[in-house]
Amino acid sequence: MAILDSKIPEGPLEEKWDKHKNNINLVNPANKRNIDIIVVGTGLAGGSAAATLAELGYNVKTFCYQDSPRRAHSIAAQGGINASKNYQGDGDSDYRLFYDTVKGGDYRSREANVYRLAQVSGSIIDQCVAQGVPFAREYGGLLDNRSFGGVLVSRTFYAKGQTGQQLLLGAYSAMNRQINRGKIQSFNRHEMMDLVLVDGKARGIIARNMLTGEIGRHSAHAVVLASGGYGNVFFLSTNAMGSNVMAAWRAHRRGAFFANPCYTQIHPTCIPVTGEHQSKLTLMSESLRNDGRIWVPKKKEDAKAIREGKKRPTDLSEEERDYYLERRYPAFGNLVPRDVASRAAKERCDAGYGVNKTGEAVYLDFASAIERYGKEKAFTMGHKNPSKEEITKLGKDTVASKYGNLFDMYQKIVDQNPYETPMMIYPAVHYTMGGLWVDYNLQTTIPGCYAAGEANFSDHGANRLGASALMQGLADGYFVLPYTIGDYLSKDIGTGKIPTDSSEFDAVENDVKARIEKLMNAGGKNSVDSYHKKLGRIMWDKCGMARNEQGLKEALKEIAALREDFWKNVKVPGTSTGKNSELEKAGRVADFLELGELFAKDALNRNESAGGHFREEYQTEEGEALRDDENFRYVAAWEYTGNIGEAKLHKEELEFHNIELKTRSYK
């Protein structure tokens, strides 16, 4: 049985990473040419890891279900990437970034991992600038920064509202260079179906060619899973429709512990749900909260009139508006962390102040920013008494230069001009802080199986601060994994190629084929999507922004019953050979139906509120999250035992020697 050993180095916090790099084993360049590594997922974590490992000399195989690595969901990240370079001179430092991240995660992160993340953050920016990533720049040519929620400094580097896309293109270009050298074999339109273990070590995967249906065997000395998060367990989320948990879940069933599945982030700044017809939700970047002010009407009758179309938001004066985040959290205002902002929006809407037809929306208003920027621009142009029209025009131009593509996207989706009328937003499932448990080296409880980026349980604890997902993904891929994986592979320099004609590969391939045939032969009448939507409704209603004991117990029973019905009554049309998108979805939903139950089990076990995990029974008089550090200051790592309902809990106790544990406050 696997055990939890975090392998955190000894010594002072700021020296751990350097000391660790100096002490671990290395593989010399000649031997790297004889070692194979599989990387599943080609987003920021997987793409950067594959490019760096190949550049070091390893032979790399990459797998993604998209038609190109640059179509990974990392492309959707909009707002920015954090780094503690202190370009603004506002007091930032590695320690401040470390502190903000641990506090933002509600003290449920490993100190050592987070400090390492802060240490390498500056190198990420240097790497990406060298690749040609077009970060925004100030008048003098220096890289610009803006603020994000949960911090009091400006440390977020950005490229308009396209930061994820630009960073991914940087990693993709680095990958392409290695593909051209023959050091990376790129398997696009391939989906990992299972993990192969030989003598207890990860030695390869079984993958399905999504165009031909062919099942293939691929061996390696180590496997890196960088396949993203599991937010689509809720059906409606900001994730791409294809985002899934299959790679991580297959590894979990083979022995990798799954950590903190209940830690899921609800993003406060999404375009609201409009009806049952939707298959996904659209994120409006958190960067908008730098300049946008969030409000609802002070009076319920005004909110009702707006919902009924009898009033417009611009009809309400400043005195008739409740800027509730500024009122409740004066120190941070609209830039409180995502979990805090999301719960506050839900509370206002539940109280009857919602502003769209469903009553589940609040306003994000840029009128003040347009006026402020307009006056500033006019003043710098020498216009000391500008007209209102000039101020408005100049202000809109400035806002457009910072957020233009986001405003255009909103207008195309909602058919409203956000320069003229406030945006409507509401919280939605976005990011998952839970994932495969990994040690300090990013290795799971399966030797030779590593997890990077959102696929691991990450450095974010119970809540991720904005602009830190890109930071963690690139830190793992560019600057952590290439060091730590060498320590493991140094023992494989004489192993030689891993053969695929072994009993272990035979057995796993047979398991994969049997599962596919079981899905194809279920013979039911219900579509895959119908089960996914039902699961999503259970998850949102009972495992969403607020959870309670009764709802979680109901969710456990309902998910188990839904899963049983799925295997009996799902209908997968077509054949298992050739392209079959319904078969692909069926395999992913089958895994979500298992993950959903473990999610609810983890949430029921954690009798506290922390970050994105909010149990209604555990809150302060002011409605804030109430942690229980005495009983739940640990990472919950679940071991698969053959039955989801009987998953075994392992605890990694969290120790804090450099940060004082205290109530998280943004007031």
From TrEMBL:
Domain FAD-dependent oxidoreductase 2 FAD-binding residues, every copy: 36-470
Listed InterPro entries: FAD-dep_OxRdtase_2_FAD-bd, FAD/NAD-bd_sf, Fum_R/Succ_DH_flav-like_C_sf, Fum_Rdtase/Succ_DH_flav-like_C, SdhA/FrdA/AprA, Succ_DH/Fum_Rdt_flav_su, Succ_DH/fumarate_Rdtase_cat_sf
Cofactors demanded by this protein: FAD
Domain of life: Bacteria
Pfam families attached to this UniProt entry: FAD_binding_2, Succ_DH_flav_C
Keywords on record: Flavoprotein, Oxidoreductase
SUPFAM superfamilies: FAD/NAD(P)-binding domain (SSF51905), Succinate dehydrogenase/fumarate reductase flavoprotein C-terminal domain (SSF46977), Succinate dehydrogenase/fumarate reductase flavoprotein, catalytic domain (SSF56425)
Domain Fumarate reductase/succinate dehydrogenase flavoprotein-like C-terminal intervals: 532-666
Protein name: Fumarate reductase/succinate dehydrogenase flavoprotein subunit
